[in-house]
Design a protein that fits this description.
- By secondary structure, the chain is α+β, with helices and mostly antiparallel strands.
- It is built from 7 helices and 8 strands.
- It has a single domain, classed as Lambda Exonuclease, Chain A, CATH 3.90.320.10.
- Strands 1, 2, 3, 4, 5, 6, 7 and 8 form an 8-stranded mixed β-sheet that branches.
- Strand 2 and strand 3 form a beta hairpin.
Length: about 230
C-alpha cells in the first residue's frame, strides 16, 4: 500500500503499456509535445469535463464527470472522464443526493479508433480498481468511447486485465523511481506519437544498425586475419 505522497499519475499505466519509452519521457524526463492527435484528444476531454454539467441525472442513470480517483493499492491517482452510476436493486453503493443503490461504471473517452494493444483497457481497469477501493463495491465492467467510431467498446474488468494493469503499474513505478528511460525502437505506432521528433526512434535505430555493422565488419576482419595465419 502506498501513501498519498507516493501516488503517481494514473495515465502513466496507459503510457507504459503503449510504450515504456514514451512513459519515461513524459513522467521521468518531463518531456511533452502536442500534435494534432493530442490536441484533438484534449479538446474532447475538455468537452467531457467542462462543457457539460459535472453531475447529471437521467432516470435510473446518474452521470458524474471529472471524478477524482485514487488507489493506494496500485499507487495511482487521476481523474475519470465519466463515471456512470446505474440504479440497481442490490450490491450497489449509496450516492449523496440520490435514493437507492447504484453500480459505478467508468467510461473513458478516446479520440481515435480502438487499438490492437490493450493500453486503453488498462487505463480503464485502473479507474475501476480505484472506484472499487474508494467505494467498497465491485466494478465488473466499463466502456471505452472512441470518437472516430462514435461508439462504445464494452470492457470486462476480468482477472487477466487486472493482472496486466497491476504489472503495468509496477513497471511504471520502476521507471519513475529508478529514472529509467528505455532505448528507442521504431515501430508503426510511433507515427501517431506526439513525441516522435523528440524520441527520434529512426536515428536511434540507425545508430544501433551502424554499431552492428561495424562490429560484424571487425569480427570478419579478425576471422580473415586469424584464418590466414593458420594457412
Amino acid at each position: 500500500m502506498f501513501s498519498e505522497d507516493e501516488l503517481l499519475p494514473l495515465s502513466g499505466v496507459q503510457h507504459t503499456v503503449f510504450c515504456e519509452r514514451q512513459a519515461a519521457l513524459i513522467h521521468v524526463e518531463q518531456v511533452w509535445k502536442d500534435n494534432a492527435f493530442t490536441i484533438s484528444g484534449r479538446h474532447r476531454h475538455v468537452n467531457v469535463h467542462e462543457e457539460a454539467p459535472r453531475r447529471e441525472r437521467r432516470g435510473d442513470l446518474l452521470i458524474v464527470r471529472g471524478l477524482g480517483l485514487r488507489s493506494f493499492e496500485l499507487g495511482l491517482s487521476g481523474v475519470a472522464d465519466v463515471v456512470e452510476f446505474h440504479r440497481v436493486d442490490s450490491d450497489g453503493v449509496e450516492v449523496p443526493g440520490a435514493r437507492g443503490l447504484w453500480q459505478p461504471y467508468p467510461v473513458e473517452y478516446k479520440r481515435g479508433r480502438r487499438k490492437t494493444h490493450r493500453a486503453d483497457e488498462v487505463q480503464l481497469c485502473a479507474q475501476a480498481i480505484c472506484l472499487e477501493e474508494m467505494l467498497g463495491v465491485q466494478v465488473p465492467e466499463g466502456a471505452l468511447f472512441y470518437g472516430r467510431e462514435q461508439r462504445r467498446m464494452e470492457v470486462r474488468i476480468d482477472d487477466e486485465l487486472r493482472d496486466l494493469t497491476a504489472r503495468a503499474a509496477r513497471r511504471f513505478r520502476e521507471l519513475v523511481e529508478n529514472g529509467i528511460t528505455p532505448r528507442a525502437r521504431k515501430e508503426k505506432k510511433c507515427e501517431t506519437c506526439s513525441l516522435l521528433e523528440l524520441c527520434m526512434p529512426e536515428a536511434m535505430t540507425r545508430r544501433r544498425s551502424a554499431r552492428r555493422y561495424l562490429t560484424a565488419a571487425v569480427d570478419r576482419s579478425l576471422e580473415t586475419r586469424d584464418g590466414g595465419g593458420e594457412g
